[in-house]
Amino acid sequence: MSTTETTDTAAQQDLELKARHRRMWALGDYDRVCREIVSPLGGVLVDALDVQSGERVLDVAAGTGSAAVRAARRGADAVASDLTPELLDVGRESHPDDTLAWDVADAEALPYEDDAFDVVMSCIGVMFAPHHQRAADELVRTARPGGRMGLVCWTPEGTIGRLFATMKQYVPPPPPGVSPPPLWGQEDHVRELLGDRVEDLELRRMTLPVTLFEGGEQFRDYFAKHYGPTIAAYAAHAGDPDRTAELDRDLAALGEREGTRDEAGFTMQWEYLLVTGRVR
């Protein structure tokens, strides 16, 4: 096979991979997951970056826009970008009174000029782009020199990182060159991706308290119904009741291990990495 043919094949495989990602994240009801559980993380990120009125802000892999909306409410000129148009449509409909742009965009090939934004951020979004270095390069490229960059990413050791580790054995292996999303929650990995292009880098492990569930089975059922990657894992074994039962047991056991019970009920602490820095 010639070099040109190899390049064309890789490009086609990449297009197919992105199409699968779009379909996966359009499954279920991610907006509900955001509203009921993870929405506070958008506020954590915007506060950590101290977004100011009049600043131009890009939210990469924004989903339904929990971070971008908060930036817009501070008076920023905000853009919510995501690969999945269905998520942007939900975000736009859910926030009709908030003035911001909703752009379909690939985190690995953003359609914006160099140095275009004062703040570039991503809240549990860019970590799911399959090629980490490409995505990191785009984050840096689109931020102006002296601009700020911030990320919230699930850690491998936290609840959602362990969720993906559990589901890994139930889904087809990714193509060569694709990195696991929770690696973005490892400090050394983030430092390697960003290199010396970001200064004043701060990386803090924090937790999101989650009290929505009564136990591991409720955790499993919620993700099986509403969260695209989990729905896709079940779909891969739709015709295999034994394998589906194994996935049921594994996810319920994970949820139970990740929570604690006391007089107040069942509480989980989902660990994430908060990253902030200034682009050189």
By DSSP, the count of extended strands is 8
Global outline: globular
Largest sheet: 8 strands, mixed
Query: Mean of residue pLDDT?
Result: 96
CATH-assigned fold name? Rossmann fold
List the helices and strands and how they pair.
Blueprint lengths: L2 H24 L3 H9 L1 H10 L6 E4 L6 H8 L3 E6 L2 H10 L6 E4 L12 E7 L8 H11 E12 L4 H10 L18 H8 L3 E13 L5 H11 L1 H8 L5 H18 E4 L2 E15 L1
Parallel strand pairs: 1-2, 1-4, 2-3, 4-5
Antiparallel strand pairs: 5-8, 6-8, 7-8
Helix pairs in contact: 1-10, 3-4, 7-11, 9-10, 9-11
Descriptive labels:
transferase; methyltransferase; Methyltransf_11; Methyltransferase domain-containing protein
Overall description:
The structure is a single chain. This protein has 280 residues and is α/β, with parallel strands linked by helices. It has a single domain, classed as Rossmann fold (3-Layer(aba) Sandwich). It is built from 11 helices and 8 strands. It has helices at residues 3-26, 30-38, 40-49, 66-73, 85-94, 132-142, 159-168, 187-194, 216-226, 228-235, 241-258; strands at 56-59, 77-82, 101-104, 117-123, 143-154, 198-210, 259-262, 265-279. Strands 1, 2, 3, 4, 5, 6, 7 and 8 form an 8-stranded mixed beta sheet that branches. α6 (132-142) links the parallel β4 (117-123) and β5. α9 (216-226) crosses α10. The chain is globular and about 55 Å long. The relative contact order is 0.14.
